[in-house]
Amino acid sequence: MALHTHKLSVLQGVGLLVSALLGSGVFIIPAIAAQVAGSWSLLAWTLMGILIVPIVFTFAQLGKIYPHAGGTAYYVQQAFGERSGRLVSWLFIWVVALGSPVIAMTAANFLQNALIEWQLLATGADHRLLIAITMLLLVLIINLLGLKTAAVIQSALSALIVGTLLFASIDTQLDPSLALPVTEFHFDKIALAATFILWCFLGIEAITHIADDFEQPQRDFPLTIFIGITITLVVYGLISISLLKTGFYGDQERNLNSVVHLVESSLGRKGYVLVNLVGFCTCFISVSLYFVGFSRLLQSMGNQQQIHLNFTRLNQHHVAYWGLSFAVILCFVMLLISNFIDLPIDNLIAYANGLFILIYLAAGIAGIQLLPGKGRWIAVIASVTCLLLFLSLGKEMLFALLLITILGGYYAVIYPSNNRVKTS
């Protein structure tokens, strides 16, 4: 069954999606791509912008025809049965468990920088874990007030984020003394840069969980997807050009602070504080959207009696508070574990990256089965693209393969037959 809450407008949906796609990636990926491929990284951005189109189209069409809180898991269930749908559901649960702590700690790092600059924290002190936990509580409180309230707040923050980044990028490019560096053409480096750029688009699937929350899903959801992707590509493109011209990239430290230096060069020391606050807001919204999508997924699973019925409970703001609370607790636990065992953030990103691509691949294959006409052929292209991207991960795809093998084996035993289950 469809799950209803207070309805979203296209503008609010675009605000949610843009902030999710910018996420933490906007502050480091353009610099990494520039380091790998130099000026040819702009070609890598162009190629990924083209390759992402069939994936975006597939998600948009599936969300238009099958608006449901289950998102990709629901599409797969409609195409291949309950066992397959549950498997994808658990992949997304693992994505949230691995990916959200990375974004939470990135957000905490930005806010700590600003607080140190304001002399509210001592230089050299590390309070990022405490800041991340506090942020999780704030995400919980805002989202308990309802998606409509969260969308209004987050849309305003998205406008601030995009405005700040665009101003710094355009201001830099108006300097006639700056030019793109001369770089030798190496196809392998362009391909490597493209794999890093993929991280910037890992967020499309999260908004599928709220497709039914738009006023007119069949019209508003695809429009939101395409407007959001267009804005995101423009922002990433302009930032990439600015970083190439200014040279704010190179080693890991310069890459991590590339956009900070870019904004600081345009707005001075106040710009340093501003960009750190903007970075915190971007990551905050990204985590928030994933938690909302996660709670909707668990709500859908509860309605299909796949998990405890308590996950279907709604508060007075129509929020599935059990699922939302579970998402916050899961992220909190993973933060503590990763901090205790000193697990590198790079590892969490790599593991989550593989799972993301598998979810995209599952959506593409479901689209081949479910979409009519040209939509089916575009889904074929999307599936092939996802498969190639997954293979390009190399050894980093092993965790995803191991997880899906374990889950697949478990559900093969629990559900020896996999008859397609249609729900309305």
Task: List the main descriptive attributes of the protein structure presented here.
424 residues, mainly alpha, Amino acid/polyamine transporter I, disordered N terminus, disordered C terminus
Number of strands: 0
Q: CATH H level: which superfamily?
A: Amino acid/polyamine transporter I
- Taken in chain order, the helices and strands follow as HHHHHHHHHHHHHHHHH
What best-fitting shape do the alpha-carbon axes yield? globular
Write a concise synopsis of the structure shown.
The chain is mainly α and 424 residues long.
Can you describe what's shown?
The protein is 74% helix and 0% strand. By secondary structure, it is mainly alpha-helical. The model is unreliable at 1-5 and 420-424 (pLDDT under 50).
Task: Provide the fold topology.
Elements: H1 10-22, H2 29-37, H3 41-65, H4 72-80, H5 82-117, H6 128-144, H7 147-173, H8 187-197, H9 204-207, H10 217-246, H11 252-256, H12 258-267, H13 269-303, H14 321-340, H15 345-370, H16 373-391, H17 398-414
Helix pairs in contact: 1-7, 1-10, 1-13, 2-8, 2-10, 3-8, 3-10, 3-15, 3-16, 4-5, 4-15, 5-6, 5-13, 5-14, 5-15, 5-17, 6-13, 6-14, 7-10, 7-12, 7-13, 12-13, 13-14, 15-16, 15-17
